[in-house]
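batch job 7 of whatever, protein = Immunity protein 22
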Amino acid sequence: MEKEGAVSLWVGNVQSSEELDRLLTVSYTDEGDFIPSIFAKHFGIRRYDDAVREAEYYEEASNNLNQLLEGFSYDDEIVLKFTALLQEGLTDDFNAVVLLYNFMYTEELLEATLQSNYFRFLGAVEYQ
């Protein structure tokens, strides 16, 4: 659900940056209605502002959350907050990150395999 000042975080493993882009591509009907991306459909997300979505694919997978989130908007704030939220850190290596800003994910689906690509929801924090 849209919520100003919140950011929701997913990590995953995808085959390529092109595949990540394909999974995150949203579209619109001729009437202007939002058609969710493959990613959004699998996580039950009906609508979000694609203009404030950030995502990155890394050639080398990592379990270092600081490294995975470096360079994203508000990284100085969100790294600390997600690190505190995930006290034990990441136990697996991931090569993709998806951040939805101004969005508080509240669905119960925490993991999804999308056409041989895997994503895990890690949580949502306030960034402002």
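notes: The chain has one domain: 2-126.
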